[in-house]
Amino acid sequence: MYRQRISQQVLHGQFREYRQIADEVIARREKLGLAVPTLWAPTFGAGNEVVWELDYPDLASFERENDAFYADTEAMEQWRRLWQLVVQGSTSDELLQQAPRIA
Question: What are 13-28's pLDDT values in tens digits?
Answer without folding.
Answer: 999 999 999 999 999 9
